[in-house]
Specification:
This protein has a single domain, classed as Amidase signature (AS) enzymes (Alpha-Beta Complex), CATH 3.90.1300. The protein has 15 helices and eleven strands. Strands 1-3-2-4-6-5-10-11-9-7-8 form an eleven-stranded mixed β-sheet, with helices on both faces. Helix 7 runs antiparallel to helix 15, helix 10 crosses helix 12 and helix 10 packs across helix 13. The radius of gyration is 20 Å and the shape is globular. It starts with 9 loop residues before the first helix and ends with a helix. The mean pLDDT is 97.
């Protein structure tokens, strides 16, 4: 065959299935063959039942297309419930746990005619204790966390789409490290029923794909948001804010160069690029997001800590204990401060279509003992705004870098439209 079916974009695969040029069963079989070949090295999957996946595909091949991703397989991060597969949160406490129902997002995917291929590896309860997954671009490097399996599976051609979550940087960071497109939508864009919470005011279901068009289709299916209108991007050039952030010096030289080169590329394509200044109070949110997360994690995992503390990792136990030591007054103050900055950001972004800013501090670190640094992600998660990371350049070890595009709250469709435009311009010059 002139091409490998497992490397097709989700959009192209869906178009071929709808046209009768490809079957879902053939696509799923190609993905399973890639998994069989690469899973011993990459270790991206927490659960996989090939016969179950193929049975779903065969059933869908006998139907008229239900939606724009009919027949396309999706990987599901193993903190999201599935009725026909275990959901174990990468914790011995939940070994063999079988939920009674699908999470809302999984049910919506099934309704739209997607194949639920399997469960992808997560860090323990989507926290920072590293999982077994490796970066498919270099197996000695972390794939990032906590959505490590989802990012690695998409990057390695095992599945065209996957769901993750983000509480700090758990979608954007692994997508950047593994060289794929990732999106953290606006807070609560995708229904979270059936997600094991870590921090209920932060947890967001995230998306992994091979390109911005695929992400747009997946968000459309899951949230019923409109698809981007190509007429918007064809009609004018965007107003882009170059945001170096108050912690710019903590990005390495390659990451800084990627952001500035990406902004220059967009300016050459006609964008109006201007420096963007952080709203008052923004810098304090780096630390406040951490405190809010720990406070809420202590509450979310109170039962596990009370009854199974010995089965939690030492790092997670410490996070929970730190959370119990924080005061409610301090938590309320941090949340109010975040609300204030959120309003200031909305005002500041009235003159921008999107921001260009670092997605990570650099390429994936050469370690499996850490998932990397969420520095350039966690404030956006706290503010609830949509973020997309697009691959752009490489670091000193030759691993991918990603630049992060940030939009205004609830303007996800517009951000994705501009992401498609940016992606096209990034690829145009290699």
């Amino acid at each position: 065959m002139p091409e490998s079916l497992n490397t097709l974009s989700a959009a192209e695969a869906a178009r071929r299935i709808a046209a009768g040029e490809l079957t879902s069963e053939a696509l799923v079989a190609a993905c399973l063959a890639r998994i069989a070949a690469r899973e011993p090295e990459v270790q991206a999957w927490a659960f996989l039942d090939p016969q179950l996946a193929l049975a779903q595909a065969r059933a869908l091949d006998g139907e008229r297309p239900r939606g724009p991703l009919h027949g396309v397989p999706v990987g599901i991060k193993d903190v999201i419930d599935t009725a026909d597969m275990p959901t174990e949160y990468n914790s011995p406490i939940y070994r063999g746990h079988r939920p009674r129902a699908d999470a809302a997002c999984v049910a919506v995917l099934r309704r739209a005619g997607c194949v639920i291929l399997g469960k992808t590896v997560t860090t323990e309860f989507a926290n920072n204790h590293p999982a077994r997954t490796r970066n498919p671009r270099n197996l000695a490097h972390t794939p990032g966390g906590s959505s490590s399996g989802s990012a690695a599976a998409v990057a390695d051609g095992m599945v065209p789409l996957a769901l993750g979550t983000q509480t700090g940087g758990s979608t954007i960071r692994p997508a950047s490290y593994c060289g794929v497109t990732g999106m953290k939508p606006s807070f609560n864009s995708i229904n979270r029923a059936g997600l094991k919470f870590v921090a209920e005011s932060l947890d967001t279901i995230g998306l992994f794909a091979r390109g911005a068009e695929d992400v747009a289709l997946l968000l459309h299916v899951l949230s019923r948001r409109a698809l981007p209108d190509s007429g918007v991007t064809a009609g004018r050039k965007p107003r882009v804010g170059l945001f170096r952030t108050p912690r710019w010096q903590e990005a390495d030289a390659a990451a800084q160069d990627a952001v500035e080169s990406a902004a220059a590329r967009l300016e050459k394509a006609g964008a109006h690029v201007t420096p963007f200044a952080a709203p008052d109070g923004y810098a304090a949110l780096y630390d406040e997001q951490e405190r809010l997360m720990r406070f809420e994690t202590a509450l979310a995992l109170a039962w596990e800590h009370a009854h199974h503390a010995g089965e939690l990792s030492a790092s997670l136990r410490l996070r929970i204990e730190d959370g119990w030591a924080l005061s409610r007054a301090g938590y309320d103050s941090a949340r109010q401060h975040a609300r204030d900055v959120r309003r200031r950001l909305a005002e500041a972004m009235q003159d921008c279509d999107f921001l260009v800013t670092p997605g990570t501090t650099g390429e994936a670190p050469a370690t499996l003992a850490s998932t990397g640094n969420s520095l350039f992600n966690r404030v956006w998660t706290l503010l609830g705004v949509p973020c997309v990371t697009l691959p752009f350049g490489t670091g000193p070890a030759g691993l991918p870098l990603g630049v992060q595009l940030v939009g205004a709250f609830d303007r996800d469709t517009e951000l994705l439209g501009w992401s498609v435009w940016a992606e096209q311009n990034f690829k145009a010059e290699g």
